[in-house]
Amino acid sequence: MSRVQLAWVALLAGGFGTYLIRASFLAMAHRVAQIPERWRTPLRLIPPAVLAALIAPAVLRPAGVVTLLGPRPLAALAALGVALWTRSVIATIVVGLAAAIGLEALFG
Predict the structure, then answer these.
(1) Residue 33 to residue 17: CA distance in whole angstroms
(2) 105 exposed, middle or buried (CB, 10 Å; 0-12, 13-18, 19+)?
(3) 82 with 95: CB under 8 angstroms?
(4) Burial of 84 (0-12, 13-18, 19+ CB in 10 A)
(5) What is the 3-class SS of the chain, one letter each residue?
(6) Contact between 62 and 72 (Cβ < 8 Å)
(7) What distances in angstroms separate CA 92 from CA 26, 29, 67, 97, 99, one per listed residue?
(8) 64 backbone φψ class: left, alpha, beta (φ>0; ψ -120 to 50)
(9) 76: Cβ–Cβ under 8 A, 6 or more apart, which residues?
(10) Which of 40, 58, 59, 70 could form a disulfide with 76 if both were Cys (CB 3.0 to 4.6 A apart)?
(11) 103 with 69: CB under 8 angstroms?
């Protein structure tokens, strides 16, 4: 099998695997109502925790060195303020991106 064929097989297998994982959640959606109440709150906290774990290193350690007063942490603080104030995902993204671009241009 050539490299191109192997790449296509890997791509299709990955896509099919992703489809099966997502379809399994849809197929099991009726069981969500059966989750005990004491587990619902911890399960709701998983997405924000994962998002914070993905964002924090990119904001605080972009080059492997902790930077607390660089352009990225300041832009993240601006985005956090907008998120808490407006509760709007779009506004948070726009302000965070604009602040990151502006502060990077300003501080180099």
Answers:
(1) 26
(2) exposed
(3) yes
(4) exposed
(5) CCHHHHHHHHHHHHHHHHHHHHHHHHHCHHHHHHCCHHHHHHHHCHHHHHHHHHHHHHHHCCCCCCCCCCHHHHHHHHHHHHHHHHCCHHHHHHHHHHHHHHHHHHHC
(6) yes
(7) 29, 30, 22, 8, 10
(8) left
(9) 55, 59, 96
(10) 59
(11) no
**Which residues, other chains included, contact 72 with Cβ-Cβ below 8 Å and sequence gap of 6+?**
58, 59, 60, 62, 100, 103
The letter for the amino acid at 84 is L
Question: For 41-99, how does the pLDDT look when each residue is reduced to its tens digit (9 = 90+)?
Answer: 898 899 989 988 998 998 988 878 888 888 999 999 999 999 999 999 999 999 999 99
Distance CA 60, CA 31 (A): 39
pTM over 0.90: no
